[in-house]
Amino acid sequence: MPDDRSATPSAAAAPVTLVGSGLATGVGSLPGDDPRAATRDVFELLPELPYLPELPGRGPGATMIGRAVALLGLAGHLHADVQPSGWRLVDRAGLDERRALDFLDRDLDALEEAAQGWTGPLKLSMVGPLTAAAGLELNRGEAVLADHGASRDLAEAIADNAAALVAQVRRRVPGAQLLVQVDEPSLPAVRAGQVPTASGFGRLRSVGETTALERLGGVLAAISAAGAFPLVHCCAASPPLDLFVRAGARGVSLDFSLVTNRDDDALGETIEAGVRVFLGAVPSLEPPVPVGVRGLLTPVQARWTRLGFGGDRLAEVVVTPSCGLAGASPSWARAAMKRSRDLARALDDASNDHLVLAEGER
């Protein structure tokens, strides 16, 4: 790990704009424990928009919250270690945090090796401030979310983490056009007051919209200031897309299997606002009945038609698996990445077919 862990990127860094059609990427996690093999697979199977994979199968230090702890340590902020109930904030770094940092270091080494000479887009991911506050514990055992001041401090630290992560990767892969995905799977539960207390018998008070906007917006602003493209991922039902957009997200990532008719207005407004949709349209777990690209393409086309968008807008969709692939078999993880790329190309072809038809009609 480089010595200057708190370094930030140049303020003059130009912001990234995601361009192109027929794009596919992953959400974050993969099965296995070999970061070099995982990163090679990503660059092989998702060459238009590769990403830095997470391998939670290695242990607590490599989970979503473990990666957050590593990034907190990377920027020299808060510290945490593993307790029976999960990660808990502590006064100084210990073995668990050092292990999480080692996992991150190995992942970045693997990325640097696989991305030699890379000049295209590259996606990173990190835990968002609301999900981190729900998943990290105070020293008394309650979630950080229970303490307004501690939650605010954590959000500010995560914003600094974003700049530190971008700086690290930019030094290792200087030609990459970086996207940073902020993972907020717990945000709907946080907003609805559904996060359980430490005892399990109660629920923590909900976080108001203004506070959620402020905390998430601070992280997204830090990503933009670092010259990277900010997007938010939420694989829960009814993700608050309007909140993500108002907080500054230029892309939103969601599980297509959980999109219902109730989400039509929010999704349509998000697309109209020019925000790129990362659509989790490929199952993260191998389905009992095989589904081909045509079977995946049809419901996406139907949803876009229902929203009132022509086929020409299909090419704007970035295809992903529905969520992380850590629970999949290695063979399905590879198949899901390849299927995502195939579906993205099919959407692009469908968009081009629509344009040809429209020109003929004129």
Features:
44% helix; alpha/beta; 6-stranded parallel sheet; 362 residues; globular; two-stranded antiparallel sheet
Describe this structure in words.
The chain has 362 residues and is α/β, with parallel strands linked by helices. 44% of the residues lie in helices and 13% in strands. It contains eleven helices and eight strands. The strands form two sheets. The protein has a six-stranded parallel beta sheet. The protein has a two-stranded antiparallel ribbon with strand order 1-2. Helix 2 (64-74) crosses helix 5 (148-172) and helix 5 runs parallel beside helix 7 (209-225). The protein is globular. It starts with 34 loop residues before the first helix and ends with a helix. 50% of the residues are buried.
Radius of gyration: 20 Å
Instruction: Choose one word for the global shape.
Output: globular
User: How many angstroms separate the termini?
Assistant: 59 Å
Tally of helical segments: 11
SS class: alpha/beta
Please, what is the average pLDDT? 89
SSE layout:
Blueprint: H1 35-45, H2 64-74, E1 79-83, E2 86-90, H3 95-114, E3 121-127, H4 129-135, H5 148-172, E4 177-183, H6 187-192, H7 209-225, E5 229-234, H8 241-247, E6 251-255, H9 264-272, E7 276-282, H10 293-306, E8 318-321, H11 330-361
Parallel strand pairs: 3-4, 4-5, 5-6, 6-7, 7-8
Antiparallel strand pairs: 1-2
Helix pairs in contact: 1-3, 2-3, 2-5, 4-5, 5-7, 7-8, 10-11
Summary?
The chain has 362 residues and is of the alpha/beta class.
